[in-house]
């Protein structure tokens, strides 16, 4: 049985997916859940807490998707598969992507301290693959967290440009460009 907090998050997520973070207000969510706006405050201290809850839920969902991957044998194929999961998630949920990665929010994880403390459910998975590749001698030595950050920046930067319509390509054309960028970057890391 879903709790009231779960219903609030589900309704807020529907509004976010349809209209973006600006449309997620305590009143709009309360209308959707059929409760008073004040009732939301029993579960979320303010709008920022509600948006953080949505972002955290998005990261948890993305981490679950990443953990469910049928892992290819080669490191390159695994990292590329991970990047494809990020891309699929961003294209399917562009407003959530913006909230998760671009919106300034209190409590959002920051590089390097939160990443090195293993507080990022998604970046930690990438970093473990990079570290394993270095240990196996596939990748040249370096700081695994920096490489994971670079891979994330490459992914997010391209996605932001595409979602902002700065890359004129079909979804399939953008996917090819995105995958080619990862291949080029990965090959530059090889030992």
Textual characterization of the structure:
With 191 residues, the chain is mainly α. Helices cover 69% and strands 0% of the residues. The chain has helices at 4-19, 26-33, 37-40, 47-67, 75-92, 94-101, 113-116, 123-135, 144-163, 171-189. Helix 1 packs across helix 2, helix 4 packs across helix 6 (94-101) and helix 5 (75-92) packs across helix 6 (94-101). It starts with a helix and ends with a helix. The mean pLDDT is 93.
Cα gyration radius (Å) = 18 Å
Mean pLDDT across the residues is 93
Report the end-to-end length measured between terminal Cα atoms: 52 Å
**DSSP helix fraction:** 55-70%
Global shape:
elongated
Oligomer: single chain
Secondary structure tally: strands: 0
Quickly name the level 1 CATH class of the largest domain: Mainly Alpha
The share of residues in extended strands comes to: under 5%
Number of helices: 10
Most strands sheet: none
CATH fold-type name of the largest domain = Tetracycline Repressor, domain 2
**How many structural units, i.e. domains?**
2
Query: In the CATH hierarchy, what is the superfamily of the largest domain?
Result: Tetracycline Repressor, domain 2
pLDDT below 50 for ≥5 consecutive residues: which ranges? none
Structural class: mainly alpha
Describe the secondary-structure layout.
Elements: H1 4-19, H2 26-33, H3 37-40, H4 47-67, H5 75-92, H6 94-101, H7 113-116, H8 123-135, H9 144-163, H10 171-189
Helix pairs in contact: 1-2, 4-6, 5-6, 5-8, 5-9, 5-10, 8-9, 9-10
């Amino acid at each position: 049985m879903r709790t009231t907090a779960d219903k609030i998050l589900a309704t807020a997520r529907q509004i976010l997916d349809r209209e973006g973070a600006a449309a997620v207000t305590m009143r709009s969510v309360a209308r959707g859940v059929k409760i008073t706006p004040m009732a939301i405050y029993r579960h979320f201290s303010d709008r920022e807490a509600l948006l953080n809850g949505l972002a955290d839920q998005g990261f948890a969902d993305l981490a679950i998707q990443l953990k469910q991957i049928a892992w290819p044998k080669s490191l390159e194929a695994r990292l590329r598969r991970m990047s494809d999961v990020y891309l699929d998630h961003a294209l399917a949920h562009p407003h959530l992507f913006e909230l998760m990665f671009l919106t300034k929010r209190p409590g959002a994880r920051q590089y390097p301290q939160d990443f090195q403390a293993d507080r990022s459910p998604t970046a930690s998975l990438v970093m473990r693959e990079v570290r394993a590749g270095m240990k196996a001698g596939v990748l040249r030595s370096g700081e695994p967290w920096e490489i994971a950050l670079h891979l994330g920046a490459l992914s997010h930067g391209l996605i932001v440009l595409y979602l902002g319509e700065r890359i004129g390509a079909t979804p399939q054309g953008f996917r090819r460009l995105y995958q080619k960028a990862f291949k080029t970057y990965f090959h530059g890391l090889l030992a």
